[in-house]
Amino acid sequence: MFSAIKRAFKNLFKKPQTLSYPAKEIQRPKDYRGLIEYSEEDCIYCLKCETACPPGSILFVPTDNPSDNEKNKKSLVYEYNPWLCIYCGECVRACPKPGEALWQSEKKAKIATKEDMVNDMWFEKEKLKKGNK
Amino acid sequence: MSKKTINIPLGSQHISLLEPIRFKFTCENEKIVEIDSDVGFVHRGVERACSTKFKYDAIPYVVARVCGLCAITHSLSYSMAAEALIGGEISKKAQYLRVLMVELDRIHSHMLCLAHVSENAGYEAKFMQLMGDREPIMDLQEAISGNRVQFDYVSIGGVNRDISPDVVSQIKQTLKELRSKMEDYISEFESNWSLSLRFKGIGTLSKEEAYRYNAIGPLARASGLETDVRMESSLLPYDEIGFKLVTKQSGDIYARNMVRLDEIINSIEMCENIVDAMPEGEIFTKLKGKPDGEIITRLEAPRGELMYYIKGSKKPILDRVRIKTPTFSSIPAFMHVFKGQEYADAPAILASFDPCMSCTAK
Amino acid sequence: MKKIEVTLKNVVNVIREFYKPKVHHFLTLNGVALDESTTEIQWIFSNYKELDHTTVFLTHVKDGDIIPSIVDIIPSAIISQREIVDMFGIKVEDSERGLYLDEDSLQKPLAYGCAL
Predict the structure, then answer these.
(1) Which domains does chain C have, with CATH numbers?
(2) What residues in B contact A3, CB-CB < 8 Å?
(3) With an 8 Å Cβ cutoff, are A33 and B160 in contact?
(4) What is this structure's pTM?
(5) Contact criterion met (CB < 8 Å) for A3 and B187
(6) Contact by Cβ (8 Å): B320, B51
(7) For chain A, what are the domain ranges?
């Protein structure tokens, strides 16, 4: 019972434990799980990352001006939604060339604003993919 | 002549309520006589989504979002059931890493419940101190898996990230400091007048009633019932790392607090044993095939017993996923404990049950 | 997992002879939609202090059947029975609907072929 009174007296002279973010930067641990990055020249268009993604945030959508890659037989282009992604890394583990075509960096996604129209643009892409199947 | 009764709600908005649950008490002069409850405020339809929309290898990520505090036990239980149906061996190192995360989860979940109990007793300084001492455990989990709350750590075949020697020394340092703080907490919860004398004899569940209402988890162990899924299931290596069963006899709020404190000490010892005896090997084995058949698995979550039933027939989408969460099957025991108690004790009794409503109404 | 087949008429007597409160632990009720008109209902039990021991009583139910209630033997079954009424639309004695779903939401979500 009296240890509680002693501790209450000592706490008068201690600093608070909360960190005043964003005035002070917080330490991020090593191997932070960040954005997924893609390099088009090494991709072989096997579409394994699209089947492995749990929420469906990677889509290969048909397009009118495809790239010059000889493996791109169906004229597709890679689309990624950083606001639907859960940063689990399943796509990197499913890719046959991890580190060259697809890898996970340590950057954070930018904050979405109303002008980006995030949901409407993504629904358009999903419709494009379903319509031409 | 019968006495008159009044209806008092402990509604979905209340100053000491953390969870979305509504009770309607029928009281005679402040003694509770009958109860009615409503639990379905956060129903999201997870069971239907698992059998119509998502494939069997994406479901560990879906099911982890049923609850925020026991996320790892849900995805681990489903992964163990799917691995048993597909067939194949998981490496020993992956099993030890999975048990390490489950026990760290149990430590910080019990500390949250004890903080809420002390806040209801009016002792806000203890609430702040417990929440502050809980932060290093969540930093450890962030160093191992990458996230503080939703870990995305377990998938079918093993775990996703390995553990490095820096993290091992950080684990040992944090657990050594935490153990000396827990000794202080145990002596406080035993001797401080606002945390021990006020809670003795309130909210009692006797051993006969616990057998009759099928109570589980710390609620049952505080009444003297010796049940724990960690010693009734052979899927995880708990007999090699020093598990001890903790029971008390009186069944009131004081006994439940002491059971949770003793379980925290036992979990700290188990984590230190795991880190000392970590075997070598791979962390992930690729399993080929699709689930076929039906199986039931059980696991000990911080609040009690969690059961999964899955049924598959060699297609990418499963036929049925049934989740039975610990708070769901404790609701009849909760409703029985309230009868005969004073209305003013109701928030303190509810906090000592540690309910988790997002698990119940999935 | 040990499976035992029962019928709707004798399930209450079978469970009354089988269940001993200090030996067996009642887990829950479960339903699986097999096809358009058949649903399988399971009662799941386990043993205290024994390793990996579960017993399942199962029966097949058609449209329009009423499932008898076991609340006299096991009082904690009331909440699982209310969930079956909500999710599958099957009638159970002494249990009304309204545990999770409201009046104006999609009814019987887990019944066979209930499209969105």
Answers:
(1) 2-92 (3.30.460.80)
(2) 184, 187-188
(3) no
(4) 0.92
(5) yes
(6) yes
(7) 36-108+119-133
